């Protein structure tokens, strides 16, 4: 049984142990080396028939595997971004084929690749059956959803991060002693620090990214390399005292809640509060035992959690991911909004959802507010088909990094030239606009969206391909050729097949 987040493991383990007792093993990366070995040995010796865990549990050493269930199969956390790169869904399907087992990919918002494969039945290696549940498991109604246009709130004089609708809904839940889940997909206190006198923005010295302010530690932190420095009291560039903290993070929302609702009990759940072992279980148990009124968090609070007393879900900023350089931005936004909305009214009490947005007309938000997966899929697939993106092709993202930018640019250009030349030799190369069944196209090279991390510059190119061609082998061949020619120059090349993120 695979779950997308370690935070969901305790709840799932509790349910499975209630049914299967000591036959349940647990596998995830937060276990110590000794604990992991004990669980592995328990499975290997046949003392456990059920394994519950996050991505790595797909490798559980069963000799007679019969069933693999992937809960929330659409989640990008099933893809391991570090080497060795793999997607747990692909591993699950391959293992099931080897053992003659069944795979169940479960989601209220399936990934477009899985949904399209089930609908089209065009892929002989992956042609799942599509089974649909038209009602909630307990038969209760889906929550009522209100979308608030924050542009109108500002026009009418409301400068708070909370719309009037969300404020009133929170007030009503506190009065009735019901609970609320608030989603904000940004940790920290503010997203960047700027001097209003000279325009200076505090940035990481090793990455081309702004630093995030964390109030509890009173420091600025880079979420990519871990660099931290004390928060400035005056501008380091011009000496001005007009230092301001811009943007909204979970710490700032927590502070604002305390100001607006004195005495409110808030549990904040994000990367900063869940670093210690057992912290997920502790926080979720406190909320389940109704020792808090609000569970505030990043996307980890949107997935699979089940609390009978939660009747309100609030989304602080629904469009935060829509402007990212990612062709899946609309899909991820729709999935996140639909999933977090599903936390409200799961039992006897009716649910309500308030979604705050600066672009409420965007089709991902419109269809999510209407619980309309089918309409979203039709619209999104039209865009994907016209732009030649998955599921109508496959992608390989090649990222090159080096400490010297001029050398890196030359290497990236060489990589693209080599890829194009090898594809032409095989008769594959050409735009995906062609009507031929086989096509191989290279886009780039360009600087990565975050052009420098840990003092290494980053350039990337993207390969689109379709048909019966071995694009992965060709890409590896080109990368090895470039690495051989650049020996001793500290060039690193990363090849990501079917990337989930383009950052």
Tags for this model:
503 residues; single chain; 4-stranded antiparallel beta sheet; Alpha-Beta Plaits; Rossmann fold
Description:
By secondary structure, the chain is an alpha/beta fold. Among the domains are: 102 residues, Rossmann fold (3-Layer(aba) Sandwich), CATH 3.40.50.300; 144 residues, Rossmann fold; 104 residues, Ribosomal protein S10 (Alpha-Beta Plaits). Helix content is 31%, strand content 22%. It has a six-stranded parallel β-sheet with strand order 7-17-16-8-15-14, sandwiched between helices. Strands 19-20-18-21 form a four-stranded antiparallel β-sheet, with helices on one face. Its cofactor is Zn(2+). Pfam families: DEAD, Helicase_C, PriA_C, Zn_ribbon_PriA.
CATH class of the domain at 144-187 and 287-386: Alpha Beta
User: Could you list the spans in which at least 5 consecutive residues all have pLDDT below 50?
Assistant: none
CATH architecture of the domain at 144-187 and 287-386: 3-Layer(aba) Sandwich
Strand order of the largest sheet: 7-17-16-8-15-14
- Radius of gyration in whole Å, from Cα? 24 Å
Percent strand equals: 15-25%
Distance between the termini: 30 Å
Query: What is the approximate shape?
Result: globular
DSSP summary: helix tally? 13
Number of strands: 21
Class by SSE composition: alpha/beta
* Helicity, as a percent range: 25-40%
């Amino acid at each position: 049984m695979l779950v997308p987040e370690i935070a969901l493991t305790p709840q799932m383990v509790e349910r499975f142990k209630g049914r299967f007792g000591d036959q349940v093993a647990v596998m995830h990366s937060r276990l110590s080396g000794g604990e992991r070995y004990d669980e592995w040995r328990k499975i290997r010796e046949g003392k456990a028939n059920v394994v519950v865990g996050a991505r790595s549990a797909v490798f559980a050493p069963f000799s007679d595997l019969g069933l693999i269930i992937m809960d929330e199969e659409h989640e990008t956390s099933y893809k391991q971004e570090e080497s060795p790169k793999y997607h747990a869904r692909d591993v699950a399907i391959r293992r099931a084929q080897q053992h003659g087992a069944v795979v169940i990919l479960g989601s209220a918002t399936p990934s477009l690749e899985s949904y399209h494969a089930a609908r089209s039945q065009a892929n002989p290696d992956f042609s799942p059956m599509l089974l649909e549940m038209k009602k909630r498991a307990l038969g209760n109604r889906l929550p009522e959803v209100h979308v608030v246009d924050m542009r109108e709130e500002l026009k009418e004089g409301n400068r708070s991060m909370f719309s009037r609708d969300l404020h009133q809904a929170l007030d009503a839940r506190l009065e009735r002693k019901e609970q609320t889940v608030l989603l904000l997909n940004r940790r920290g206190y503010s997203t960047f620090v700027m001097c209003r006198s000279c325009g200076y923005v505090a940035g990481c010295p090793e990455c081309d990214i702004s630093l995030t302010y964390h109030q509890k530690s009173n420091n600025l932190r880079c979420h990519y390399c871990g660099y931290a420095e004390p928060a400035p009291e005056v501008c380091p560039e011009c000496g001005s005292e007009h230092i301001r903290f811009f943007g909204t993070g979970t710490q700032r929302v927590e502070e604002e809640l305390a100001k607006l609702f004195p005495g409110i009990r808030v549990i904040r759940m994000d990367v900063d509060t869940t670093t210690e072992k057992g912290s997920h279980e502790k926080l979720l148990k406190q909320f389940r035992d109704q020792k808090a009124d609000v569970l505030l968090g990043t996307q980890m609070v949107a997935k699979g959690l089940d609390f009978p007393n939660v009747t309100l879900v609030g989304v602080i900023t629904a469009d935060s991911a829509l402007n990212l350089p990612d062709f899946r931005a609309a899909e991820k936004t729709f999935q996140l909004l639909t999933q977090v909305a599903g936390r409200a009214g799961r039992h006897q009490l009716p649910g309500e959802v308030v979604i705050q947005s600066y672009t409420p007309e965007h089709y991902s938000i419109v269809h999510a507010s209407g619980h309309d997966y089918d309409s979203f899929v039709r619209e999104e697939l039209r865009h994907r088909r016209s732009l030649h993106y998955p599921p109508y092709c496959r992608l390989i993202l090649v990222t090159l990094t080096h400490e010297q930018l001029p050398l890196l640019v030359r290497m990236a250009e060489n990589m693209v030239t080599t890829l194009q030349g090898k594809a032409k030799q095989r008769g594959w190369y050409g735009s995906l606009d062609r009507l031929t069944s086989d096509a191989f196209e290279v886009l780039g090279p360009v600087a990565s969206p975050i052009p420098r991390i840990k003092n290494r510059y980053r350039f990337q190119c993207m390969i689109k391909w379709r048909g019966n061609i071995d694009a992965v082998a060709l890409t590896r061949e080109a990368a090895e050729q470039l690495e051989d020619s650049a020996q001793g120059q500290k060039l690193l090349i990363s090849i990501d097949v079917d990337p989930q993120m383009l950052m």
